UniProtKB/TrEMBL annotation:
<comment type="similarity">
    <text>Belongs to the virb1 family.</text>
</comment>
<comment type="similarity">
    <text>Belongs to the transglycosylase Slt family.</text>
</comment>
<dbReference type="InterPro" id="IPR008258">
    <property type="entry name" value="Transglycosylase_SLT_dom_1"/>
</dbReference>
<feature type="domain" description="Transglycosylase SLT">
    <location>
        <begin position="352"/>
        <end position="428"/>
    </location>
</feature>
<protein>
    <submittedName>
        <fullName>Transglycosylase SLT domain-containing protein</fullName>
    </submittedName>
</protein>
<dbReference type="Pfam" id="PF01464">
    <property type="entry name" value="SLT"/>
</dbReference>
<dbReference type="InterPro" id="IPR023346">
    <property type="entry name" value="Lysozyme-like_dom_sf"/>
</dbReference>
Length: 996
């Protein structure tokens, strides 16, 4: 018999069982299955002989039977062996068929036929059938034909092969049908896509729908044998039409074209089922209502379409359109702010000119058309002539384009030649091939599109300068809603009213926002005007227009006056701001006369900026018109305010204030050129020249103490010093780099002045001041110690640290008898005559004290720390004698030089002396000379030399040139004061040239 075993790879098959022969079994002590047991024999002792004979006979019979049984067993075993081979062959066949059907999970090259999809399954069918047959042959090749095993294998394998073939046939049929459906579906979707992409083109819609319907008709005819008239086919075709138009209309809606979507729906109503039509229409309605309402709202408000491009209505008044054009072209102005004919600057001699901005080449024929004699001078200087000729030219264009105002206005702006080209390219609105608006949207010149749109708008688009502009009359517009929405969906009217009410509310809010933005813009311009910037004149006219639209008339007029007087004042003051204080005062005094030439020109310019139509701003007898006095007075006040602002700027940042002067700019340009050359000598000379030019201009404009650094430069340098990270950059190195930038230790170096400005104007910390003066080679170690002391903590922290090592000595530093005050007595004496002397002393005292504490905190004794700190900062830098503080090693030469200068003083070498009127001039000179010779020499502001101070007033003694008498260290080094020869001590022996 055969036992059935379920196949592990084919659980879903009803016939997927392995076959196995039932093999006989053997148990020890028992006969094998199928072999009868021998009968039990009893031996009779009494009949032993007879028994033997009988037993022998029986034994012979049994032996015969045993032979038969043995032969039968051998046959059975052979048969069972054949069946085992048949079973193995059948199992192999099942495995191979299952692999063909389901694939081998361990071999990606054998996916299995039932796993093939679509076209792949169809293509694999024939190969699968051949492999199936070959599998049966291969599996049974080891079985002998005609045997029971072979017969059994053939029967079972044929049945299993047929089962596999049936299952594969069902699979490929299903795949073929699915593929056919997919192909049809894809083709239909492609046809529908045509509708989505071309919803605005009826011809494309028809082609797309026709293709879709034909594909479906062919599919049902081929696949199911159904005729087009079959009800099932008819329903499928209707469903397809509904889907097609739903997609096309939805596409139009998604592209923001609900009106286009509605047109497509209405045009194809007969092709859409009532149910689908109602559904599409219901979805479309709110969008159409909104679009209609928005369009009516824009029409009532006189606004352009959403894209900003709108054609000129064909029933628009041509004169109104031309008025708008002239306002756009020139603001109705024939002349610019300088009084010259207004010209666009494009086209050379044939450039558009005047109020109508018409080209002379076009104007000549236009003048002849209305019977005017051609006169180019009048075209340029006679506004009435210019506007008449411009209107005539526009009429010529209207005649050329059949009265189409959109085309004629575009031609006025871009030229008729371009318009003719655009008509050929985009279609001619006059033939109905394209609408005026669509044509206007197509032309490539944005300026022309905007120009035509603005010219055609009668309310909202009216140019800002148009007289009498006011917000729309919303109540009047609301009264027109019913008439404008007649015949439309009732909801459109309601929505239009809501739109207009919303716009009215928005206007009330938005004007406040616009006013705030405008005020901010105007404030920026006025701030620039205060700084003498007169470059904003082109922006003035549009702003004045906004004043007229956003403010009541009186307020708009006042704001206009403020703006134009500020602009004119900035222009006038720009021409005088680099003068001396006296020159500026004289200029303002001249402008205070309303009938001066400057005042008349200023008023004329201001009225031009405001768009006044009256030409000269003067009345009878060449005097300023009475109505312009207030304008003139406001203008003069603004000029005076600018002058005051100028003085404030010179006081705060004189270098920046004079930087726009031509001499200063020229010197700066030379410096920039020299820096590109990398020639250090040229750079140094150019820098000296730039400083000299700036100093001269500052002095010219009344600055008593010219500076080298701008506010920005000084703040940057000081910030860079104080922010320096000691772990990365040494402040001393930064100071040295800055010193090198300004001349370093050269005789004509600007560094002493720059360093003085850091202290006086930019608040350089006293500790960094000390670092700055520690620039001698013998101060290198002390300078490094000082920088470490700066970053070692606060004075309180250093005092505490010093106390740890020095005990009570840390508190003796400020002791007036044994501390720093005694050690620094000589330095104090050199600061008393300087206006910043006490501040200088305190600053240096604090730095020396910090260094003393630092030394003590690091283990030095009190006296050693004091001596080392003092020497490191002052002792190795200077020599002292009374009030004199001079570079180390120059005391003797300086004393000699100052003595020579003192000896050389004479009555006529000093500035004229005031004083007691009862004294003669000679007596006053003698008193002044005596006072000067009793004076003392103190360091000047930048420590570049010594200045002689009066003994009575303790003010600098002035030479006959009005400048302080000063001995410069660089002059001493350069030999200007040679050593005295023995025996020459008289005043007469001193050259007057030595007195500085």
């Amino acid at each position: 018999m055969w036992m059935l075993h379920r196949c592990r790879w084919c659980p879903d098959l009803g016939w997927g069982n392995r076959l196995m022969a039932n093999v006989p079994t053997f148990t020890p002590g028992k006969s094998p299955d199928g072999i009868a047991a021998a009968p039990e024999t009893k031996i009779d002792p009494d009949a032993f002989g007879a028994g033997i004979a009988s037993s022998l006979r029986s034994f012979g019979d049994q032996m015969g039977k045993a032979g038969d049984v043995l032969a039968a067993s051998q046959n059975r075993q052979a048969e069972q062996a054949g069946m085992v081979r048949a079973n193995n062959a059948q199992n192999s066949h099942i495995d191979q068929v299952n692999t063909l059907l389901y694939g081998d999970p361990n071999d990606s090259t054998k996916p299995g036929f039932l796993n093939q999809q679509g076209p792949a399954a169809i293509a694999a069918w024939n190969g699968f059938v051949n492999q199936l047959k070959q599998t049966q042959q291969n599996a049974g090749s080891g079985l002998q034909a005609g045997t029971t095993a072979r017969d059994q294998f053939d029967q079972n394998s044929m049945r299993y092969t047929q089962m596999a073939l049936d299952q594969a046939r069902q699979h490929v049929a299903a795949q073929a049908q699915d593929y056919a459906r997919q192909s049809v579906g894809s083709t239909v979707q492609m046809a529908h896509q045509v509708g989505v992409q071309n919803y605005g083109d009826p011809r494309a819609l028809s082609l797309g729908l026709g293709r879709s319907q034909q594909v479906l008709t062919d599919f049902y005819a081929t696949t199911y044998g159904m005729k087009p008239s079959d009800p099932v086919v008819q329903q499928k075709l209707q469903d397809d039409r509904d889907q097609f138009f739903d997609k096309a209309i939805t596409a139009a809606l998604q592209n923001g074209q609900p009106i286009e979507a509605q047109q497509r729906l209405l045009a194809n109503r007969g092709l859409i089922s009532p149910t689908a039509y109602a559904s599409i229409a219901a979805n479309l309605r709110p969008h159409v209502v909104k679009a209609d309402a928005d369009a009516v709202t824009r029409e009532l408000l006189g606004q352009p379409a959403d894209d900003g491009v709108v054609a000129i209505p064909r029933d628009a008044n041509p004169d109104d359109v031309m008025d708008s054009q002239i306002r756009i072209e020139s603001g109705r102005q024939q002349f610019d702010s300088s009084g010259a004919p207004l010209t666009s600057g494009v086209g050379g001699a044939d450039a558009p000119v005047g109020a109508g901005q018409i080209r002379p080449s076009s104007a000549k024929a236009a003048a002849a058309r209305v019977g005017l004699q051609w006169d180019e001078n009048r075209l340029r200087n006679d506004q009435a002539y210019n506007m008449t000729v411009s209107r005539s030219y526009k009429d010529m264009l209207l005649d050329r384009y059949g009265g189409n105002q959109t085309l004629a206005t575009a031609a006025y702006n871009a030229g008729p030649g371009r318009v003719d080209e655009w008509l050929k390219t985009y279609g001619d609105p006059r033939t109905g091939a394209i609408s005026d608006t669509d044509w206007l949207k197509q032309i490539p010149f944005r300026e022309s599109r905007s120009y035509v749109s603005r010219a055609g708008l009668q309310n909202h688009g009216k140019p800002a300068l148009s007289a009498g502009y006011s917000p729309p009359d919303y109540d009047k517009i609301l009264s027109k809603v019913d008439a404008a929405t007649a015949g439309m969906d009732p909801e459109v009217g309601d929505r239009v009213r809501a739109n207009i009410i919303t716009r009215r509310n928005q206007w009330q809010v938005q004007t406040a926002t616009q006013r705030a933005a405008l005020e901010k813009q105007v404030s920026g311009i006025q701030a620039a005007q205060l700084n003498g910037d007169d470059s904003y004149q082109p922006a003035i006219t549009p702003i004045i227009g906004q004043f007229q639209t956003l403010y009541p008339a009186q307020e708009a007029e006042q704001k206009t006056h403020d703006l134009v007087t500020g602009q004119q004042a900035a222009t006038v003051f720009a021409g005088m701001k680099n003068g001396t204080p006296q020159e500026i005062a004289d200029g303002i005094r001249s402008l205070q006369d309303p009938n001066s030439a400057g005042s008349k020109a200023a008023v004329r310019s201001m009225k031009g900026m405001m768009g006044a139509t009256a030409s000269p701003a003067t009345g009878m007898n060449g005097q300023i018109a009475p109505e312009d006095y207030q304008l003139h007075q406001q203008f003069v006040e603004r000029v005076a305010a600018f002058a005051q602002r100028r003085q404030e700027a010179l006081a705060k940042d004189p270098v920046a204030a004079v930087s726009e002067a031509s001499t200063v700019q020229t010197a700066q340009q030379h410096l920039a050129h020299a820096m590109q050359s990398n020639d250090q000598n040229a750079i140094a000379q150019a820098q000296r020249d730039a400083i000299t030019a700036s100093d001269a201009m500052q002095t010219h404009q009344g600055v008593l103490r010219p500076r080298i650094l701008t506010e920005a430069q000084g703040q940057h340098d000081v910030q860079m010093l104080t922010d320096a990270d000691p772990a990365k950059t040494s402040a001393a190195q930064i100071l040295d780099a800055l010193a090198g930038r300004y001349g370093g230790d050269s005789d004509d170096s600007a560094w002493p002045r720059v360093f003085g400005e850091y202290q006086e104007h930019f608040g350089l910390s006293p500790d960094y001041v000390a670092l700055g003066i520690m620039n001698q080679p013998n101060q290198v170690i002390a300078r490094a110690d000082m920088e470490r002391a700066i970053h070692a903590g606060s004075e309180q922290q250093l005092t505490a640290a010093a106390g740890v090592h020095a005990g009570s000595d840390a508190g003796k530093i400020d002791d007036p008898t044994s501390g720093l005050p005694t050690l620094m007595r000589d330095f104090l004496g050199t600061t008393m005559g300087n206006r910043a002397g006490l501040a200088t002393y305190n600053a240096i005292y604090g730095s020396v004290k910090r260094l003393v504490l630092y030394y003590m905190a690091n283990g030095k004794g009190f006296q050693t720390a004091m001596n080392d700190a003092y020497d490191g900062i002052l002792g190795r830098k200077y020599d002292f004698n009374g009030t004199m503080r001079v570079p180390k090693g120059m005391l003797s030469a300086t004393e000699d030089a100052t003595s020579r200068v003192m000896d050389g003083l004479a009555p006529d070498s000093l500035a004229p002396e005031g004083g007691d009127p009862n004294l003669t001039q000679a007596q006053r000179q003698e008193i002044a000379l005596s006072d000067a010779r009793k004076g003392s020499w103190i360091p000047n502001a930048h420590e570049t030399g010594l200045t002689l101070m009066s003994s009575s007033t303790f003010l600098p003694v002035l030479g006959k040139d009005g400048k302080p008498i000063t001995v410069l260290f660089q002059d001493i080094r350069n030999g200007k004061y040679p050593p005295r020869l023995p025996g020459i001590n008289s005043v007469a022996s001193i050259s007057p040239s030595l007195v500085k």
